[in-house]
Records
---
Amino acid sequence: MSVPTDSRVTFDGRFARDLPEMAVAWQAAAAPQPALLVLNEPVAAELGLDPAFLRSPEGLSLLVGTAAPDGATPVAQAYAGHQFGSFNPGLGDGRALLLGEVTAVDGRLLDVHLKGSGRTPFARGGDGFAAVGPMLREFIVSEAMQGLGIPTTRSLAVVATGRDVRRETMLPGAVLARVASSHLRVGSFQYAAATGNPDLLKRLADHAISRHHPAAAAAERPYLALFEAVVSAQASLVARWMLAGFVHGVMNTDNMTISGETIDYGPCAFMDVFDYAALYSSIDRDGRYAYANQPLIAEWNLARLAETLLPLIDDDQEQAVPLAVAALEAFRPRYSAAWLTGMKAKLGLPADADDDVASALANDVLTLLQDNHVDYTSFFRGLGSVVRGDARPARDKVLDVAAFDAWAARWLAVAPDADAMDRVNPVYIPRNHLVEEALDAATAGDLDPLGRLLEALTKPFEERPGLERYAAGAPDDFGAYTTYCGT
Ligand code: AMP
Ligand code: MG
C-alpha cells in the first residue's frame, strides 16, 4: 500500500539508486495499533509535511512504515563497523529502514528513516523492534542537542505500535521516525571497502561528496578533500560534545556520520557532576567511550575511514598513505582550536583572547570542578552571576572556596562578558533523572512530564520561571547512572 503525502512532498530513493549494493528493499512489520506519542511539528514543517496529515491514520502508517509514502521504496542500509574496537563486516540496519530522501523546504536533501520497524536481513539475533522508552529518549536528547546548537539527526515522531517487545520485561513497542542529512557512516565506507569493489567505493564517496562536502569535488584530490572535510566536521562536533558535557557512549564506527551530525542516541548521557572519567554505558566495562576519551576515539575512527579511502586517494599506496596521515594529523589541532574557541565563549572571553591564558583558565576550572565534584552545567551558568557581582551561584557549589576565589580572581581580571556567557552556557540540559522520570511516565501512559521536559530543552539558554527543577543537578539519592545499549 502506498499513501499520498502532502502534495508538496515527494520521496526520492537516491541512496538506493546510487548504491544498490548497499540497499535491500524491505517492508516494515505490521503495527497492530499505532498511537502517536510525540510529533515534532517544526521538523514536519521543515520537511513540508502537514502535521494534521501526520496525525491521521494514513500519516501514522507512514510513520511506522506500514504504508510507504508516494515514490518511496524503503530500504535497509548495509554497513560494517568496529564495535568496541573489533571489526564486524556485516552490520546494517537490523531494525531500521530508510524511507527515502525528501527535499526540505529550505532545499536541503534529508533522509527520513524509521527505527524499530521490524527485523530486516541484517537483524542477526535481534528482534527488530524498539521500546517506547529508548525511542522517546532519542527524541528528547536529539532535540536537546538541536536546542544547544550541536549538529544532530532530528526526531520527527515517536509512534507506539501497540505491540509489546520482550526486554528484561515486556515493554510497549514504538517506532522513531528520524530525519538526518544522511545516514552515511564511517561504517558505510568500511562496508564498501570490504566488498573489494572499487567502483562501489567510488560511488559511495561521490555520493558523500555531493550530499555533504560538495567543495571537495573541485579539489585537486577530491577523495582526500572528502576525508579532510570529515576530519574537520568531526573535530568540531566532538569539541561541541565535550563543551556540553555530553557522553555519546557508543562511538563505534557505524555510529559516526560522514556529515558530522551526532547519531544514535543509545547509552548516551549528559554529565551532572564534572568528571573526565564519566561513563554511563553498562556494556562499556573498560571505559573505551568515557567522556575524556571521545576525541581520541573520534581520531581512531577517522583513521579507519582513511584506510578505506586510500585506494581512491591515489592508485599508488606509497603516495596515498602520507597524504592520509597528514590529513588525519589535522584532527588534533582542529579539535583543540574548536574546544578552546568554545571554552573562551563559555568563560565570556573574546575570541581573540590570549590562547595560553584562556587555556589555563579553562583547564584549571575543570580541575577545580573535578576535584570538588561540582555540577558542570549549573556551575558554568552560575559564572554569569559572578561577573554581575553575586558569586554565590558558582562559588557555593565548590567545597574548596579558597581555590574557587583564587581562580575567579584570575578569571575576572580578564573582564568576562556575562551576557555573552548566558548565550552559550545552557540553563537546561536533559538531566538524567528528569529523562528517566519522563520516560517512566510515558511508558505508563502519562505524556505530560515528557512535554514539559521538551519545552525546557528546546530553549536551553532562556531561563524561565517555573522551570527551576529542570535547571537543578541530580538529587543526592539519584546515585550512579547507568544506561543500556541495544534497547
Ligand atoms: P546500535 O548499537 O544501536 O548502533 O546498533 C548496532 C547494530 O545492532 C545495528 O546494526 C543495529 O541495526 C542492530 N540492532 C540493535 N538493536 C537491534 C534489534 N533489537 N533488532 C535488530 N537489530 C538490532
Ligand atoms: Mg547504530
---
Amino acid sequence: MSEYIVTRGRTLAGGIVDVEIEDGTIRRLVPAGEGDPSSFPADRRYDADGRLVTPPLIEPHVHLDATGTAGDPTWNESGTLAEGIEVWAAYKEDITVEDVLDRATRTVEWYAANGVTRIRTHADTTEPSLTTVEALLELRERVADVVDLQVVAFPQDGILTDESHEDLLREAVEMGVDAVGAIPHNEHTREDGVESVRTVCDLAERYDRPLDLHIDETDDPGSRFTEVLASEALKRGIGDRTTASHATAMHSYNNAYADKVISLLAESGVGVVTNPPDNSVLQGSYDDYPRRRGHTRIDELHEAGVTVGLGHDSVLDPWYHYGQADPLDAAFVLLHYAHMAGRDDVSTLWEMLTAANAEVFGASEYGLREGNEGSLVVYDSPDGFNALRTRAPRTLVLREGDVVARTEPSSATVHRADGTSAVDFHR
Ligand code: FE2
C-alpha cells in the first residue's frame, strides 16, 4: 500500500508537522492539524504526539562479515587494530556463507529496529574463497525488504602484500560489489601504499564504482595516504564518489600539514567518515601517558566544508567488542570523544547522522520534504538533544510508506518508602 500518515511529529528544527505519504513518497508536509488522517486507513496512521521525527538513519561504514564474532576464537586483549586483524584472520580460516548470513542478518535487523534503512558494509576480499563477498552479496538481496545494502570490496590484509590479492579484489568487483576499497596504511611500504591507492582508483574508474578506503587508520603521523587519495580524486574528477574512512592519523599530524590535507580534501570533494566506537578503543593503544584520543579532526574538517559522515564500523567483532547497531550510540561516543558537547553541536551531530551520511551513501530524494521518499523515524523523545541523551527508542520506522520496525518503550518504577513511582527519563 505504501501510504501512511504521521501526525504531530516534531522536526529537528522544532516545528510540529503532519506528514502524508502516498505511493511511497511524501506528498504533503504541513503544520500539525492541516493533515487529513481520515483519508488514511486506521492501521496506516500514527500520532507522534509531539515526539521527534527525523529522516531515516544511514550506516555509512560497518563490517557485517565480522559482526557477532567478538571473542571467537579469542578476544582482542591488546585493543590494537593489529590484534583485531590477527583474530579475524584466525576466524575467517573456516568461515562459511551461512555463518556470515546468520550473523549479518541479525545485525541488519538490529539496525532496522534502530531506524536505519541504508547500510554500507565492507566485505573482506583477502579471504581466498571470497566467501564473505558471496555472503554479503546474497545478504543484499535477502534484506532488501528492510534496507538498501551497499557492499564495498575491502582488501583487509592489503593489496600488494600477496600476489593473489589484486586478482581477488578485481574478482569481487566483477561479482557485483557496489564500491571499491583499500587499506594503504596496511601495505608493507609507503610506496606500496601509494600504489594501492592508484590501483583502486583505476579499478573504480574502469568498473564505474565509487571508492571507500580505510585510510590512515593509525596514530602514526607519518601515515600520509589521505593526501594521495584526495590528489588522485582531484586529478580524476571523482571526488564526489570517494570516501576517506577513519583518517585518524590526522589527529597526530602537525597543524601545518593537517591544514594542507584538509584543504586538499575540501578542494577534491572527497568525504570523510569517522567511526568513533572503534577508534575510541583502538587509537592510542601504543601510547604511554598522555594517551592520545587519536580521532580525526571533525571541527577543522567541518570548518573547511568537508562532508563528514558518522559510522559505527564494528558491532560485536574483534575490533570493537560492544555495540547494538545504533547510530545514536556512535554519535554519543563522538560527542564525548571529539569535544562536541556544546549546544550547537547537537544539530551538527544530527546533520552528520542524516544529511552527511546520505551524501556519503549517494542517497537521493532523501530528507523530510515534499516529493522525497516517504521514510522517517519517530523517537520516544521530544527533541534531538534528548534523543541523543537517552538514545531514545525508535517507536516507528517507515520506509517508503511501509512500517519497517516498531518499538514499545520500556517502563521502570522506583520502590520508595511511601510507595512506587513511575520513572520518566525525559526532563
Ligand atoms: Fe572499517
